[in-house]
Amino acid sequence: MALLKVDGLSSTYSSSKGPVYAVDDVDFELNRGESIGIAGESACGKSTLGLSLIRMLSGGITQGKIIFDGHSILDMSESDFDDSFRWKKISMVFQGAMNSLDPVFTISEQFLEILKQYGYEGDSKKIISDAMNSVSLDENVLKKYPHELSGGMKQRVIIAMALLLKPKFVIADEPTTALDVLIQAQIINLLKSLKKDGMSFMLITHDLAVLSEIADKIGIMYGGQMVEFGSSEEIYKNPKHPYTQGLLESIPTLNGNTPKYIKGIPPSLLDSPTQCRFLERCPLSVEKCKELPPKFKTETGYVRCWLYEDEK
Prior knowledge:
The protein has helices spanning about 45-55, 80-85, 105-115, 125-135, 150-165, 180-195, 210-215, 230-235, 240-250, and strands spanning about 5-15, 20-30, 35-40, 60-70, 70, 90-95, 170-175, 200-205, 215-220, 225-230, 295, 300-305. It is an alpha/beta fold. It has a domain at about 1-90 and about 165-225: Rossmann fold (3-Layer(aba) Sandwich), CATH 3.40.50. A hairpin with a 6-residue loop joins strand 1 and strand 2 (about 20-30). It is globular, with a radius of gyration of 20 Å. The model has no long low-confidence stretch (mean pLDDT about 90).
């Protein structure tokens, strides 16, 4: 049984100009102990997908199913999900979260606040110690205030908070953004270590180079839709969707080859699409692309592109 199965998930935001179709008909599965990377340009729906999985969008999920550990979490009441799943089985490292630590409380006090919020009645000292050890932080850090910690230490504290109640699945939204290269490497090595210990997680990023080191499966988001999904090996060695190919070709290389950038701008999420989202930027578009493409099966997943219609 898959740990996480997402089927036809759609999420929208309300705006003064109308609904924003941030996530549209997303499907994927993740087994226990696996990691999935979600990649794409800014404002393509990556973070909204993560927030949807932890039910942090008030009324924003419009259709679809999320089956986690055999439970349909969208059918639960908010109180039941909060009591049994949020932070206990599914947790999240939010984008820019290291800047959200309260400057007037020690790290220890902020850990205790989480335990109080979720009604933890066990040994608080031990569970906090376990979380700190899992991210290789000395317990002396607990006595300090956020301003006394480096950026890398604050990010590890945030990850420790996400691990505090020993969840089965952690969503990490851009955990290496705004960190220098050495600290980024520390965070990636930490995630690798957690993966070896059996943790399942989702890594949301615009950096495909980072995902190549850590993800078992990859979902490519564009215009609110997952346009390609498959194993990490297939995505990197045999990318199908022209957008995936464009992303990979835009990565700078050490051999000095000039990266090829994707021309144009992403589509507005205010419009409910009636054609392929990538049509206006695609160098391989054909007449059929004026219709919405369904999912076409690949070796390890699927692709939404009419070029693979004959391989369905």
